[in-house]
Amino acid sequence: MTNVGANMLRSVASCAFVLVLLMSVDGCGESPREGRLPQDRRESEYEFQRELLADGVVTASELEQAVLANMACLDRKGIRHSKPIYDESNAPPVWNYDVGPVPTEQIGPDGSPTEADKCYEEFQRDVDSAWVLQEQPSEAEMQEREREASLHTGGRDRGR
């Protein structure tokens, strides 16, 4: 198999994995983008996130607030991190940042950075989860993307 063929197979496999992952996040129904988040996705045991989720919609600004609150928590605990960068090339857009190294005394017995995890859990986890659910493409959008990808791939294959 040529490198081009192998790369195409990897791309198709990656797309299929993402499709399956998106469908498994919350079933195959319509995207909450068109409505509001289900009640169970508006809840959080943490007051900060509960306030951001209360109206049933997570805005890009609210997601940013959650990320920045997480970064502030890491700062208070002395955990180094990179500057968060908003990456719109993903679907849905995400905030990317690196955490660490975590001070040795803050590493849990299983090797996980528990203090960093606690910051994420308290300030960002539930908002992240709701954002992904909310921005998940509808079944119709997924079918359209699949159709467009098929047309695009089919056109490339015929040219060879």
Write the layout of secondary structure elements.
Elements (H helix, E strand, L loop, with lengths): L2 H24 L20 H7 L6 H17 L8 E3 L6 E3 L17 H10 L1 H11 L3 H20 L2
Account of the 3D structure:
This protein has 160 residues and is mainly α. It has two domains: 1-31 and 138-160; 35-135, no CATH class. The chain has helices spanning 3-26, 47-53, 60-76, 114-123, 125-135, 139-158; strands at 85-87, 94-96. It has a two-stranded antiparallel ribbon with strand order 1-2. A hairpin with a 6-residue loop joins strand 1 (85-87) and strand 2 (94-96). Residues 1-32 have low confidence and may be disordered.
Which shape, going by the Cα principal axes? globular
Characterize the quaternary organization of these chains: single chain
Main sheet: strands, sense, barrel: 2 strands, antiparallel
| Tally of helical segments | 6
Approximately what portion of the residues adopt beta-strand conformation? under 5%
pLDDT average, as an integer? 76
The value of Rg in angstroms is 19 Å
- Beta strands, count: 2
Q: From the helix content, strand content and strand pairing, which structural class follows?
A: mainly alpha
Give the % helix: 55-70%
Poorly predicted regions are 1-32
Q: Give the spatial strand order of the biggest sheet.
A: 1-2
Please report the distance between the alpha carbons of the first and last residues. Answer: 14 Å
Series of H and E elements: HHHEEHHH
The number of domains is 2
